[in-house]
# Entry
Amino acid sequence: MTKKKQCHGGVKLTEKTARTLAMQEFGTARGLTKSTSFVGAYFMEFGNLRIEICADAACIAVRVVLAHGTGSSVKYFDPDTLQENFKAIDKHREDEDRAIISDWVNLNGPEYCRKQVEAIWKQGG
# Structure
């Protein structure tokens, strides 16, 4: 298996690969356009869904975002096989969880949060 060319600290994403992923995940690549603002990013829209296919550090990320910003989903793919990269998905979830906990501690203070965790721990749930 050959390694994809690295670009800007990540994988180089070509239009052909973006089209292949769009077809694989959504059944169409209609409206796929190259971003003028971001290197290695492609966009397409379905009604109120905005789809972004972009190069990440070691993967290709596919994000689906509601046009009004009320929800989103992301999947990561291996650049060589275009199969889901479950390790990257798990890392993304861990990073999101850490950010949520960090925001909670920054908002409420470490002492309050420690007391809350201890109370939950003592209750067993």
